[in-house]
Amino acid sequence: MSGWPTTQHPPSVSQHAPPPSYAYPPNPAFIPVQVRQGFSPYAAPPPPPPYNPYASSPVQSQATTPGTTTNASPSAPVEQPKGGKTEWPESVRRYVQRSFHPENDDASVSRAELEAKLKDTIGSAKENNALYTIDWDNMPLPQALVRADHEAALLKLRHTSLTTPIYADDSFNPRKRKSNDFANNDSSVPPWHSTNSGRSLEDRISYSPDKRVALDDPKSSKFQKEANKRKRRFENEYKAANVASPSPTPPTSGPIVGTSETLEKKYLRLTAPPIPSNVRPERVLRQTLDLLKKKWRKESNYSYICDQFKSMRQDLTVQRIKNEFTVSVYEIHARIALEKGDIGEYNQCQTQLRSLYAMGLKGNPIEFKAYRILYFIHTANRTGLNDTLADLTAAEKEEKPIKHALDVRSALALGNYHKFFQLYLDTPNMGAYLMDMFVARERLAALCNICKGYKPDIKLRFITEELGFESDADAAQFIIDYQGQHLLEDRTEYIAFLTGKAGNLFENSRALAFRKVDIKGQI
Amino acid sequence: MNELFKGFARAYAEQNGYLLAATLSPISPPENPQRLRLILKSSNSSSIKGDIKHLIKSNASHQRGLDHEEIKGWVEVYAAYWNAVGDIVAGEDGKSTWTKVYESWKELTSILIRGYNNFGFEAWTIPCLYMIGKYLRLFAIRSDTERSRNIGDNSGGASLMQDDFDPETEKQGQLRDCEQHLKRIFTLCLNDRAPLEESRKWGIYFIINLLFKTYFKLNSASLSRTILKTLSAYRGDMPPLSAFPKSQRVTFKFYEGVLFFLEENYVEAEKHLVEAWELCHKDATQNLERILTYLIPCRLLTTHVLPTKALLEPFPRLQRLFFPLAQCIRKGDLRAFDVALQEGEDEFVKRRIYLTLERGRDIALRNLLRKVFIAGGFDELKEGETTPVRRTRVPVAEFRAAICMGSGGELVDTDEVECLIANMIYKDLMKGYIARERGIVVLSKKGAFPGTGV
């Protein structure tokens, strides 16, 4: 196992885990020594996990990175000190995870509200000894519950506003009131919402699981929920607009100039022209970027960072700010997204960068043009590749990162896997994150080639070296992952790979790997 | 203006769609360079509709098949045309923009479409749709170029609500918009349920070709597939392609072929391109050249056939593009191939054939390796054998020497040489296998290089 040039590896290959979906799962039972003892006892390992970067350790990451917009910890319910240590059922843990999954984010529900609701739901379930009886997997998410609260409050407001002062039941339910103090800090939350949290509905919901399930029944309430969501958002914006300008101002078509001084801002997709008081000017955005860079280094909470960057991008766009600062915002977001395997965001940034560079703005066009090529290789986008080639100048083609990417392209085009894997091990910048996405499929293609070309067998070491594996064990594992265990034969001096007996074994996997290139790859 | 409606009446009398379409041309004919200006001058915006109505009635009211409704429709069309002419003439004087021209021409397009939907325009008039559609696309392109020259003031309030800028729509916004309207014409022709003799279905291929051009220009050639899918869903009640004018068939076949070409389906691509080649008029040199641009790379990959001198004779540009490459492939000169490919790269990339031609290197390599095989000569005759058998066990070292020489003396290591050979075997360009332990390649006794006679 000596002599394998680990020193040549780009950092990402040896230090970072590649995005989960593309890597074959490490088999904990598999250690190199056992390889030498023969392969027959190994069963096929489980298939790779579905692509979900959060699945690896969601509880951990959420618990160790408390919500940054508020001080409440998302794992609060789990840590509730009542009655000493509680064994939380797995289903409850899953429920908590789901609640904080960015996919379930709801712009109309603030983090504080969400956490309070979560705490409430789990807390009351515990009090009623219902932790094990509630069907947590079908339990509506706190977002849905909070929305229901809003709805109830709204209805109540409508009924009572004519006769009763809005703040009539202000003193009711002090516990609830307290948790909503967080929400009060959030300027986007209208005032009625913190004072009028719909106790009756909430009480019903918290204690009868059946009705809770019914509430989330997609058939009966999906439409209603959507409608509520829209209504809420509209009301928020309407309110905000009214706060900003008491006398209605005619909509202008020119870029606005922001006046907001808040550094952090949650991302919310615009459905109406933006309001200057909610938009940060470039001066503030520069401070925001510094803050986010620090936070990313310290906390590495991607869903928070991504959200913040999206709101920054939005602020830049609505103010039509297109300068070198804009470039750096997109570049940094692109790099972070790349590192986290968030191809969707990465792509959006790339598109922007391309046109920003085309405007002659300074930045790192070489680095990003190289990524672009690698990405098009990954998605097998010939049109994109052709266009990129057309855009490159002769000088750019000589720049190291771009030359590398172009060499990767031509090596693959000509089936020169030998050269391809040499290039793979020597990838500049963060290109290895992109190459990791298609390296498995290229290994399969190369294996098909080798199996047809070599007879009767070759040394496993040859595969290791030709296909850029870190060790013989990795190479063997790869072959085993694709049902090739019977092709490995332990000989006294070395392990042989019986290419002559492979037939079309890898062809199907190869075809499959080349077919499913998820263009969006969005989280 | 009177002239215009004389033409209109004549077209109606003869039921000649092309004559009718000529009255809607945005270009003054060479024999009457002042046509547009005269039309413009002969009326003004307050009385234009009345004037047109009067002229149509006095010239053509006695025509059969021109009922009241139709006249109403044509009045609208010619009024919109008069408006557009105003913008075109102003543009010629530098007092208008292509964007304005495009907008008014678009208005004309909508009104013409309405004529078919609401005022019962007959199918023989569809050449008007050709005329309108053709120039709609050209004006859109000009408007886009014009707008890209003064960037910054183009996007309206829409982009204010976006999270990011959309550079694509900013660049080709008008052409994208134009595509929408061409699609409307497409639907207008496609959905006509009138009997075939008087159906607008006869306009379908002209419009499809316009859409193809638009999609290729928009860099989204793949959208053409959607059109083809829609078309094939209606195939049952569509006249066969062979019943359409040759000019439309050539264009259609060409684009269909290129579409397959871009999808790397070279076998299908070749079929369609050959059809286009055979239909194409022998004097349409430019079109022939276009077809060959894709047909030659196609053939190179499907049947490994290189273009002959005679074929390229009438096309000096294609000679320049393809001859050096063909030469290198024949000789198996890898280094020269790379150089030739690099030298033509800009042109090749522009025509989207670079990535295909690149694969010609495989053929060059095959030819080189074949030379090694032939140079190896024959094994000594064994007892009982009468015909000599070529030496089929070739040391990898010999291939390596050839590849190093072919690469201009660059040292290629043994592993890479094996990799290249494995590729040849995998692609069925070579028959045999590598015995790595012994460092030899064992080639098939029969047809080691399929299709090359050895």
Provide structural commentary:
The complex is a heterodimer of chains A (523) and B (454). Chain A has helices at 11-15, 32-36, 58-64, 76-79, 90-100, 111-127, 142-160, 174-185, 191-195, 199-207, 209-215, 218-244, 282-299, 302-318, 324-339, 343-358, 365-378, 382-391, 394-398, 400-413, 417-424, 431-453, 460-466, 472-481, 507-515; strands spanning 458-459, 488-490, 495-497. Chain A is an all-alpha fold. Chain A has a domain at 90-100 and 108-148. In chain A, a hairpin with a 4-residue loop joins strand 2 and strand 3. Among the domains of chain B are: 2-151 and 168-244, no CATH class; 376-443, Arc Repressor Mutant, subunit A. Chain B has helices at 2-14, 17-22, 35-41, 48-60, 68-92, 98-118, 127-149, 167-190, 204-217, 224-233, 246-262, 266-279, 285-302, 309-312, 316-331, 334-343, 345-350, 354-357, 360-375, 396-406, 414-426; strands at residues 393-395, 432-435, 440-443. In chain B, strand 2 and strand 3 (440-443) form a beta hairpin. At the A-B interface, helix 14, helix 16, helix 18, helix 21 and helix 22 of A face helix 17, helix 21 and strand 2 of B.
